[in-house]
Amino acid sequence: MTPTPLLKVVPVSEPEFAEWSVHSEDFNVWYRDAHILNDINVRFPAKGITCIVGPSGSGKSTLIRSINRINDEVPGFLSRGSISFNGKDVYTDYKDLTILRTEIGMVFQKPCVFPKSISENVLFGVAKTRKLSRAERLILVEENLRAVSLWKEVSYRLDDSATSLSLGQQQRLCIARTLAVKPKILLLDEPTASVDPVSGRAIEELLLKLKKDYTILLVTHDLQQTKRIADHIVFLCDGEVIEQGDKAKMVTNPEHQKTKTYLSDSFCEC
Amino acid sequence: MRISRLYIAGSAIVSAIIVLLIFVTLIVNSSAAVAANGFHLFTYEWNPAKDQFGVLPMIFGSGAVTIIALCLAVPIGLMAAIFTSEILNPMWRAPVKSVLEILAGIPSIIYGLIGIAFFSVWVGDLFDLQSGRTILTAGLLLAIMILPTIITLCDDALHNVPQKYRETAAGLALYKYEIVKDVLLPIAKADINGAVLLALGRALGETMAVMLVIGSIDRVPEPFYNALSAGQTITSKLGREVAESAFGSVHFSALIFMSLLLVAITVSLTSLTQFYFKQEQRLVE
Amino acid sequence: MSNRSIANTAFVFLSRLATGICGFILVFLIGVIVWNGMNSMNIQFLLSEASNFGASGGILYQIVGSLLLVVMASVLVMPVAIGTALFKSEYITSPALFRLSSILIYSLNGIPSVTFGIFGLIFFVNILGTGISWFVGSIILAMMMLPTIVLTTYQSVNSIPSSYRENAYALGLNKWQVIVKVLLPQSFHGAVTGLLIALARAIGETAPIMFIATAFSGITVPGSLFDPVVSLPTHILALAQQATNEAALQNAWGSSLVLLSLVLVFSVSALLSRLRLKEISQR
Ligand SMILES: Nc1ncnc2c1ncn2[C@@H]1O[C@H](COP(=O)(O)OP(=O)(O)OP(=O)(O)O)[C@@H](O)[C@H]1O
Ligand SMILES: [Mg+2]
């Protein structure tokens, strides 16, 4: 299965927002005195899957957590430079973070369901945005559980506690919960790392299905997974972007030796 | 070796005996009042001269001041705990907690002095009363006394909720208000209930401060919700009268009976809270 | 602005308001005690005897009496508390007994302070006929301090990894030697922390000692363990009850400031000792 990359060549000139939905300019992050991200210039294409890869501690999570500003709450967090999303600067143009976060949804590495029923979990974010009628609630629950292929497994026990689900199911529930808010961009931080291989595959299938409608940024350690589903790859090492480009170029013909070693041997000497 | 075992087992036995001795002493010494009065203990008249020992006014007083104190201190304390745990820069949390600990350590007699010198005067002036020593004054003072306990324990309860819940909820575009109300409070509920129970026990058992400002009249006010009249709690009654009554008299025994009631309530509350907290800690670990 | 964001702003405002109220109360309480206390504070006040029912003179013997009460209480409580903690952590094997011991300790912790005073009055003063005395006051305070010290000591003994014990047994030490050589030194700090916390509370207690240990006036240093003492908290109580007398009230504030300072000395030491305890247990 080779999904056709949306972009064959990395454009060097000014990107168009239709194509580049998120991009950063000289973005830096510090946690207290530690300089974690160093002059990051990345561009993520709209619609499609961008995999962010790199060794542990290279700052992948820090990068995507900076995009919807979840990092703001971390003590000692400091940023400089800009991240733009559809032409607006994430750090200066959003006074109200909830608006930003309805547009940029996030799924974390460890599934985190609230100790409530399955359907309440699905509705957790949307129910805040507007009053939902009973019919709307039922529709939303079914629609989003179907979207993550969980409907068949749980349709008969929607009122059970979400904590009773298996880890893989919980992670899919988390994705459904995020989809229900109808974001434009999905940030996923190693969503398959803490689930079994079968559920992991189910999530991959799901992402391939979703990429038609969503811009997906996926942090992953799994190079096989990257090769299976990525359209575009960003390689991060020690807080710097070493190389980025579409999958074909990155895998077969990378410019940097580091990228080549990492993507073939998952090893990095940085 | 034998001496050592003797020492360790001995001290454990001493500890156990102390507790049992307290209960036995109270039970034995309250029996005379029960024998002499039976169910008449649960009436409204307290008049040792006429051998009337109705404890209901004191039970009412204890209940009333405790309810007033909790109604004031729980909402304010919980909101302040939400601030210290969720809004305040984490850097400041440790100093704030130390200050609260110091505040909680002010001896109750000093609270009593402040109550006499300020609160009762204010209440008297504000409501134009002859004496500002009222049930309301005692409730107010108690509220202030239990506030630090409530803040610290509620702050701990909220702070123990893992960070991932906050991040997940924020990622779903919730406001801080909604995160606190719909995620953190439900998860921390057991600990918060424990905190309130503990504060309740403290409030019921508090003696000196209440005794100085409540006015010490053994009557249920008319109408009963009139918090601006003087009253009496179990503890203030004990503090004032135990030394005056003769050891072995029915009067003394009736006082001990009240003390037994109080101990039964506070001990069950405290044990209950401890088991609350224990379970939660295990969950967090 | 949406309704949600208004609700959020209101909520944040309310929580700030609540904190502001608490801060105001804090400043008021501390301010009142310090301000009024400083007005009657001088060397003379600290170092002279009370006279005229406390309305004039100083509080030297009240300070001495308070310290005598808690020092004696510490001497009485420490061996029992450490023994009980060791029993709880090293000797109890049955879960039922463990539960029972917890219930007993928590009960002791839950008993209101005035009840301790009443118990002392009945059991020691009347039944055993000890009379109102320093000794009875200290015993009762010791009982009140017991649960706190047992719990902190127990926690620090219990946090010692069992590998320490196993190594010690492997070296051929018997249980008592293990306790003395391994567990006690490690847990000593926990016991001291507990003692300081308990002292900070005990020195301010009025209700437990007012029936059984203290007389109001005419007393300096007790001649023996079985003589009554004077103490700061009961002194403040007596002065507060003559609140219409300006001079008495003035001295009550002075005594309060001194008492609060003593409490602070103990509680700040407890705080430091606890920090150090954390350091030790993290090593
Ligand atoms: N809250 C924090 N405070 C201080 N330093 C942090 C914090 N979170 C992360 N770091 C540091 O920032 C660096 C990057 O961390 P990050 O979590 O972004 O790495 P990562 O690429 O996601 O690694 P992994 O693949 O292991 O998840 C690491 O050196 C980490 O120690
Ligand atoms: Mg990561």
What does this structure look like?
The complex is a heterotrimer of chains A (270), B (285) and C (283). Chain A is of the alpha/beta class and 270 residues long. Chain A has a single domain (20-265), classed as P-loop containing nucleotide triphosphate hydrolases (Rossmann fold), CATH 3.40.50.300. In chain A, 34% of the residues lie in helices and 24% in strands. Chain A is built from eleven helices and eleven strands. Chain A starts with 19 loop residues before the first strand and ends in a 5-residue tail after the last helix. Mean pLDDT of chain A is 87; it is low at 7-17. Chain B has a single domain (2-284), classed as MetI-like (MetI-like fold). Helices cover 74% and strands 1% of the residues of chain B. Chain B is built from ten helices and two strands, in the order H-E-E-H-H-H-H-H-H-H-H-H. Chain B has helices at 2-37, 56-87, 93-104, 108-126, 135-159, 163-171, 176-205, 208-213, 234-241, 250-284; strands spanning 46-47, 52-53. The radius of gyration of chain B is 22 Å and the shape is globular. Mean pLDDT of chain B is 90; it is low at 279-285. With 283 residues, chain C is mainly alpha-helical. Chain C has helices at 3-39, 43-47, 60-91, 95-110, 113-127, 134-158, 162-170, 175-202, 232-241, 246-282, and strands at 50-51, 56-57. In chain C, strands 1-2 form a two-stranded antiparallel sheet. In chain C, strand 1 (50-51) and strand 2 form a beta hairpin. In chain C, helix 3 (60-91) runs antiparallel to helix 8 and helix 5 crosses helix 6. The termini of chain C are far apart. The mean pLDDT of chain C is 88. Chains B and C meet through helix 1, helix 2, helix 3, helix 4 and helix 5 of B and helix 1, helix 3, helix 4, helix 5 and helix 6 of C. The structure holds adenosine-5'-triphosphate and magnesium ion (MG). The site of magnesium ion (MG) has 3 residues of chain A, from helix 1. Adenosine-5'-triphosphate binds at residues 31, 34, 36, 54, 56-62, 74, 221 of chain A.
The portion of residues assigned to helices of chain B is over 70%
Question: What oligomeric state do these chains adopt?
Answer: heterotrimer
Helix content of chain C: over 70%
**Which range does the strand content of chain C fall in?**
under 5%
- Looking at CATH, the homologous superfamily of chain B is MetI-like
CATH class of chain C, named Mainly Alpha
**Strand element count of chain C:** 2
What's the CATH topology label of chain C?
MetI-like fold
**Architecture (CATH level 2) name of chain B:** Orthogonal Bundle
User: How many beta strands in the DSSP annotation of chain B?
Assistant: 2
**CATH topology description of chain B:** MetI-like fold
What is the count of helical runs of chain B?
Answer: 10
As laid out across the biggest beta sheet of chain B, the strand order is: 1-2
Uncertain spans of chain C = none
Q: What is the typical, i.e. mean, pLDDT of chain B?
A: 90
pLDDT < 50 runs, ≥5 residues of chain B: 279-285
Identify every distinct bound molecule in the structure, by name, code or SMILES: adenosine-5'-triphosphate, magnesium ion
Q: Give the name of the CATH superfamily of chain C.
A: MetI-like
Name the largest protein-protein interface in this structure: B-C, 81 and 86 residues
